[in-house]
Amino acid sequence: HLNNYELIPCNRASPLVNPHTGRDYYCGQGPDKEECPPGSYCHWSLSFAKCCPMDEAETNMTVSGPVCKGSQFGCCPDGKTESLGPNYAGCPSICQCHKLGAYEETCDPVTNQCRCKPGVGGTKCDRCEPGYWGLPQIQHGSKGCQPCACSLFGSVRDDCEQMTGQCVCKPGIGGKKCNMCPAGLVLGPKGCVLANQLQANSPHTCADLECFFGAKCHVRDGHAECLCDAQCPADSSSATPVCGSDGETYGSECHLKLYACRYQKDVVVDALGSCPPLGNQSDGVTDS
What sequence ranges are listed for the domain Laminin EGF-like (predicted)? Predict the structure, then answer.
């Protein structure tokens, strides 16, 4: 329980002594308040206000703003962050969260899990999740790791090269997303083919029809067709829009996948957020 832990000044380090008075510095409030000397910080709680030495790595940093006021577990070694548990739990020096991949320097005091940005994974948020790439791109304005968006029809696998986003293409297919065919050919389930080869007669049995993107084959009125039973949550107020590889903006990743499933289109998430203004804008499909 939180109350079982005693709050100790300076996290067991020795408080600084004012050489002129021979007493510990007092950095609290009132007429007796003293400024902490350089290389130290004020550990201020309800029962004391002591000047404490910073870690060696922090001695050249200036601590600004309130520091550890009333913290149950004392200060972190940086002198400015409240510890979230005993033994510096949740402190930046313990968490070591990745500066690009994590939202903040602190982490869960029990699991040490940092809070990762979209598409970023790992305890320290130091790598992209499978199917995503471009952790260094976050420093240039990306919201997180970007989806690989490899074409289901044109790529060998759904992950990509981590620095460039290049997908692994099937023979004869090119492009970063493996969605480009030589002139005169179009991309289909069987690779690059002539356009008229995609316009096959309507199949009568499921043995003659292959469905993709989660759809299932059903025979109705003597014709086989791919039907998608998936639905997206009714409340999409917290959903993040995504830009599809077709240049359309969808209300969420779920709506993009629903569109691909219903219409058997090879559309994947190309980027988080809306498509650029020059692209056609759409809310994607709805559940109605």
Answer: 95-147
